[in-house]
Amino acid sequence: MGGQQGVYWHSSPIKKLGDEYRRELLYCGHPLGLKDDLSAAENLISGVALADESITEDAVYEALAQAGLQGREHLSVRALSQGQKRRVNLARLLLQKRALWVLDEPLTALDTQASQWVVRVIDQHLSDGGIAVLTTHQDLTLAGTTHVIRVGV
Predict the structure, then answer these.
(1) How much is the pTM?
(2) Which CATH number do you get for residue 35?
(3) What is the pLDDT confidence band of residue 152, given thresholds at 50, 70 and 90?
(4) What three-state secondary structure class fits 1?
């Protein structure tokens, strides 16, 4: 790119790509983007609909089960613990197929079992040819990692 600055996606600056780039991106961060009055399942269904995609209820229940929330699908998000809310948010990774994942502290508020699940999901995404950019304060080893930048270690 010969001295050009900025962020590029498929050799084009993302500033010029707009929606074309955003359709390839899935962000999961500290603000979970969940509605407290909706159930875990309703949050995922509405999130997928807002992304202009369709999904079956079975896929939603399967994603929640994989996230360790089986039996809690119909609870309002308000009734869930912080770690369970994080799991609902991260279940989007299984439903919204995107090439690029940007994950800000994805293991925050998760127990060991949930953290291991997230690592497996990220590893699978990388093995399928996806890209994951993430920040974490926890020691994390991903099988498909090609670049690791440690800051302030």
Answers:
(1) 0.86
(2) 3.40.50.300
(3) low
(4) coil
